[in-house]
Write a structure and sequence with these properties.
By secondary structure, the chain is an alpha/beta fold. The protein has 8 helices and 14 strands. α4 packs antiparallel against α8 and α6 crosses α8. Mean pLDDT is about 95; it is low at about 330-338.
Amino acid sequence: MKKTRWGIVGTGFISGHFAQGLKMLDDAVIQCVASRSIEKAEKFAKTHGAVRAYGSYEAMLDAKDIDVVYIATPHTLHLRDVIMFLEAGFNVLCEKPMGVNAFEAEQMIAAARRNNAFLMEGMWTRFFPAMRQAIRWVREGRIGQVRMIRAGMGFDGSGDRTQWRFKNEHAGGALLDVGIYPLALTFHILGTDPAIITGACNLINGIDEYNAFILKYAEGQLALLCSGIAMKTDKKALIEGEKGRVIIHEEFWRPTKAELVLAGDDPLTFTGESTVFEEKYDSTGFQFEARAVQECLKKGLAESPDMPLEETLKIVQAMDALRELWHLHYPSDNLKQN
């Protein structure tokens, strides 16, 4: 069996979880890992079974035996690191958000196309079996026309405001960190061109610690979304239509369970038939995203049909619009550049 050879750039928390997910795939191998220090790289390699370790990201550019690179460096380094590897001829999976604004995303997409390389934003939520089933029910028209989506992701990290999430210079804030999940879910279901995007946030030291935002579409569909890094929210996502609802149970961004509930005849409560799909998974769940990337590479695709680059761009444009509304700009922002 020919194995897909992965390089991992960055040795933080998410990289470790991704590496654990890769171990669930028989046709994947961690060929090498790069960190800003050789000590961290060697420790990561030993823990996760990587063949080689590099003490700088640039050192990995000389590797000739990598099929795809997973980049999970800090948000503000994605632009530099993604383009560096694309220009060197590597295929790239970049942890979300791919760019901290639309200008950055545009530069990365252009680099991928210029170098005929594969590029995808790591929106892992899209690839879980329970999420795929939920979307399938919606696409099949089981709940009729979707009328409203309600979703949020919030946790309380306020006990340590020294972490990067609470720092403007590190592109922190709830929207970019976790608000992207309900936004991406909405775009996946209702499309990428809402007629109205509006909302509000609690802004402290230049950071949106929690927020709420509304999307309205031309045909009347609404999305009521929220996110937070200093407050907990409900962990389910509700997709509500004229004939019923789809519930993506906790935690919707990495779900094990989806439920289809038909409306029934009662005008107040859901009394119709209920169908439950449940599929638990081992490890961290990153294996589903990694497998999807490997399938794209085997087919010779330059981008994923499930997470296309145009959708990545539209998502970050929507986040730009909200940040403009909230007067929130990161020091690395290039929104005004042409």
